[in-house]
Amino acid sequence: MESSLALLGLLCPQPSYGYDLKHAYDRFFATRRPLAFGQVYATLSRLIRDGFIVALGEEAGDGPDRKRYAVTDQGRDRIGQWIFTPDPPNDHLQSNLFAKTIIALLIEDDAERLLDLQRAEHMSRMREFTALKREADIAHVLIYDYAIFHIEADLRWIDLTSARLLELRKDVAQR
Amino acid sequence: MIRTILQLTTFGNEQSRWRLAGIVLGIAVGVGLLLTLLGAAQGLTDRDQRRSWLNVNFEYRLDEDGEAYTLTDDTVMVGRFTDYVAGDAIERIDVAATQTTNERTPWGDPLPAPGTYFASPALIELIESLPGEQLGDRFGTLIGPIPDSALGSPDSLYVLAGVDEATLGQFQSWWIQPALAGDASGSNVVYRIVMVIGGIAMFLPVLLLISTTTQLGGAQRAERLSTLRLIGATPESVTRVAAIEMALLALTGALLGTVGWWLLRPVGARFVVDEGRFFPYDLDVSIATIVAIAIGAMLTTGIAAGVRIARMGIGPLGVTRERSEHAPSPLSLLPLLAGLALFGGVTWAFKTSNVDVMLLSLAIIGGFGLTSLGIIWAGPWLTNCASRLAARFAGSAAGVVAASRIRRHPEATFRSVSGLVLAVFTVTVFAASASSVLEADDPRDGAQVFPLSTVYAYIHEGATEADLAGVEREIEAVPGVLGAVIAMEDRNDPGSWLVHRDDAPLLNVRIEDDRAWVRFDAYNYIWGEPDAERPGQPGAATLAGDLPFVLMVATDGSDGVIDTVRTRLEASNQMASLARTRADDIDVTTRKFVNSLANLAYIGIAITILIAGISLTVATAASMLERKRIFGLLRLMGMPNGVISRIVAFEAVAPLVAVLAITIGLGFLISWMMVEGLSYSRTLHAPDIRYYLAILGSLGLAVLSVLAVTGLVHRNTGVNQTRFE
Amino acid sequence: MTALLTRETAQSIPADGPILSARAVVKRFGQTEALRGVDLDIEPGEVLAVMGPSGSGKSTLLHCLAGVLAPDDGSVVFDGIEISRLNERQRSLLRLNRLGFVFQFGQLLPDLTAVDNISVPLLLSGVRRNEALKRADDWLERLGLGDAGQKLPAELSGGQAQRVAVARALVTNPTVLFADEPTGSLDSLAAEQVMNALLDQVKAAGTTVVIITHDPRTAAYADREVIVRDGRIPAGNGVRSA
Ligand SMILES: Nc1ncnc2c1ncn2[C@@H]1O[C@H](COP(=O)(O)OP(=O)(O)OP(=O)(O)O)[C@@H](O)[C@H]1O
Ligand SMILES: [Mg+2]
């Protein structure tokens, strides 16, 4: 995810201070690592430079956290362009796990055990997310769902592969 | 395609084979029953025709000019009597004719000469089994049997005796008519009414049984049909399959029923109906009728099945219309109320005006049919009311499960018991009506009452004192005779008899004062009413013009003595009537009639109750097995074994209890209307023991059926019998 | 021993060690060997997921653990009771008072309203009707079904029906809840609601749960999962190596 576009998007509903912006960002997007203030201001100045936002009149006091930022028309166009451009599906064709499995088969090691270990790892991550999700608010639930479904995809691949091991073994042995 | 569908849905598995067997059997029973009833109706008509010559008719006494016939070569002089022997009634015709008469018997033989007679085979057998002085001597010499074509039944006791004109002329009643013939009377209207009512009562449970078996495994069938729809069967083909399947089954059932009926005809002919058994050929039904019944069964059941499937709306994704029943409304009481109103109306009309007998019997049949249907119609509503009441008080799991089931499916639950309910209704109506006859006419002996053991006959006006003394002497010589008494008729007070005080004790009459003659009311006396002695004017003056009127013979009461006395009296040629006892007048005619009717009815009722019991078992079993999975689940949850029996029992008993009491009440109400309204003197009494047996039998069958179904459900819902996922 | 079959005693004995323990359980159906020596320990209060390919013997294992099927070999001990020694009546009592069951679908009595369905196990164990209905109502509330009490199963959504089934399984406060594919016919959201509701309740009551599932997301609600393959649980998976 591009954090600069996410920050720009958060500014769209109404102008906001840098401080509030960081917290909004953290609430929605930063589940594990909060965004550093420095990174926020660096991004904001880049957005000003590109003409996507403007800093509104400075108020009493000084310093970057006393500035309010608002989005420009150009910025809105950029957001519209971003959200309506579909992302290409991730290309996981040559994942590490696939490679490990093939190698295990080639050196006639216990591929099943490898897959079980990986399953246990995935499951324990999934349990972790499920537990967190049960406590989380709705925005974070979406994030955990996303993660959980991706882990599930891997798990399903692992299940299917372990069901196909016999066939795979024959095939690898023939080559 | 249709063949494939039939193969998949009709003959698919074990349960569907049970269903087929059930339907075929149900239809077979129905067709057999219908043929039996039609045959019996036909038999009654034929019988009426054959015995019509006995109905010698008063209208024959006057010719076209309104003049009385005289005895010529082309007329006969006829006396029509009922004679009695050992408690049996003999239909007797005495016939006198000229020497050169042209008349013949109805079966073509020459008329019997005086002192000779024709008798029916059953009577000939009876005559041969008894000493001549008890029976045979009354008629003279046997010249031949009356052929079957002139007999109502092989058991008929008929005699056609030849007498001379003078002897017959001494009798109180005789007439001259142009031929020995009569009209077929509708003498057995009552039988016909009862048979139609009985037919309705037996037929409805059979229909219910068929409809129940048709629905066996209905859910699975619907599922299969919808699978077939999914893979491309058209709605029409599914409907057509259902119709064709049913029509084929009906044809098979009709064939089976006809064969069964044919084989069982000899059994049917054994039952005593009215005057006796049927001749086997009486119960025959024409081939055309049989074919018509078979075609009718095919068409009605086939169309009904097609319509039902079409209405179920089996789509590719299962049954489209939700099959939960809509709640029955109190409006369903209307047909029942209409039936009762019809009965009430008929009774009222009969009481207040003259109603044609044909119309009356149609109205009674209609009222009965409507009331029966009305009970079936109203049953679900009553059941629903009862289940609501029960649901409120049900505290156990079984109660809650059963009450909810009934509440959601009042029609289905009531249908299970409706056969039994109908059977109970019919038996109540019948038993209560029959009680009015069986109880009322029980003849009894008592003080100041004409003894049952006394034989009497009216004395011919020309009899001289010497003749009578001779008869008296002859009779008193018979062992077992206690004495003979001659009563005089009081001319100043017709209907009163005068008896000498010395004879009074023989007649069970007590005299307090010292009068020489006592006078009493003949009518009441003969009919068994205790009669206080009337204040009379004793003295020779009163007696001078009086004639000997009746000869009374006190006996020890044994059949042999009574019959010997009858024979002597009849053979004496001094009497103006046949000899009879008080019991003859009441007992034999009505009681025998009602008894034979009752026997027949109870046999019908037993069959009906049995059919209803089977129907209950099948329906309960089907409704339980349909919920096999649920019961298995309950058992998995740890439901104790007894709960299933309680659910089964509750579901069968609740509708029975809800409707049975009302049904019995209605049965009594209707027979009360019939008896009090349609007859003049009879009243309702407690029904006889067979009624209670029938009711007990019904309840016993219900219990048996619950037990059987419980066992079945237990075997089919074992926790390791069902897979749960 | 019969005393152990009732709930009251169950709560008074602080369980120590596994509540349910299978050793070398073998179950055959004719030629098929559905279970070929399964060892499994389940700790009190644990939520255990049982996974594995179709036909591997999961349901059979559950039925053996619950005393529905008798194993051909091996033993199943529940709370110190050797289940195979009980007769059918005692096993019924055990299931009624100490075990609960949830299946994939079609387990509610179609003629009974939701609240009546929930009250059935209570009625079966002799609770008075009013009391049973009150408790059933309470459970409806807890599972977020407050307004569905008077509906018939046919009028409930799949998720609601499953929650009613959960309520029915838990209303007797069982020691162990067995669930065979409880979310198998639900979409993700309904499955999540059912699992959340179930977990909220069992965690609060300390109920042990055995869930069979194909769905990793459902399995992720468990504390631990075991995999059944070809009628076996791989060594060290079912039983903690001593
Ligand atoms: N009652 C039975 N009769 C015969 N075979 C059975 C029976 N129950 C189970 N089996 C067999 O035992 C094996 C295990 O069945 P089981 O139902 O336990 O599998 P499962 O793991 O639950 O499968 P699924 O995930 O598809 O539900 C299968 O091969 C099945 O065919
Ligand atoms: Mg399974």
What does this structure look like?
The complex is a heterotrimer of chains A (175), B (725) and C (242). By secondary structure, chain A is mainly alpha-helical. Chain A has seven helices and three strands. Chain A has two domains: 3-83, Arc Repressor Mutant, subunit A (Orthogonal Bundle); 96-174. Chain A has helices at residues 3-11, 18-28, 37-49, 73-83, 96-106, 111-135, 138-174, and strands at residues 16-17, 53-55, 68-71. Chain A has a three-stranded antiparallel β-sheet. The model of chain A has no long low-confidence stretch (mean pLDDT 82). Chain B is α+β, with helices and mostly antiparallel strands and 725 residues long. A six-stranded mixed β-sheet of chain B has the order 4-3-5-2-1-6. In chain B, strand 3, helix 3 and strand 4 (141-145) form a beta-alpha-beta unit. In chain B, helix 9 runs antiparallel to helix 10 (357-393). Chain B is elongated and about 105 Å long. Helix content of chain C is 35%, strand content 21%. Chain C has 242 residues and is α/β, with parallel strands linked by helices. In chain C, a hairpin with a 2-residue loop joins strand 4 and strand 5. The longest helix of chain C is centred in the last third of the chain and has 18 residues, at 188-205. In chain C, helix 4 runs parallel beside helix 6 (158-170) and helix 6 runs parallel beside helix 7 (188-205). Chains in contact: A-C, B-C. Chain B binds chain C through residues 322, 324, 394-397, 400-401, 404-405, 407-409, 629-630, 633-641, 643, 719-720, 723-725, and chain C through 59, 63, 68-69, 89, 92-97, 99, 101, 103-104, 106-107, 109-113, 116, 119-121, 123-125, 128-129, 152, 154, 180-181, 184. The structure holds adenosine-5'-triphosphate and magnesium ion. The site of adenosine-5'-triphosphate (ATP) has 10 residues of chain C, from strand 2 and helix 2.
Which properties best describe this structure?
heterotrimer, A: 175 residues, mainly alpha, Arc Repressor Mutant, subunit A, 3-stranded antiparallel β-sheet, 7 helices, 67% helix, 5% strand, B: 725 residues, alpha+beta, 4 domains, 6-stranded mixed β-sheet, 5-stranded antiparallel β-sheet, 20 helices, 57% helix, 10% strand, binds adenosine-5'-triphosphate, binds magnesium ion
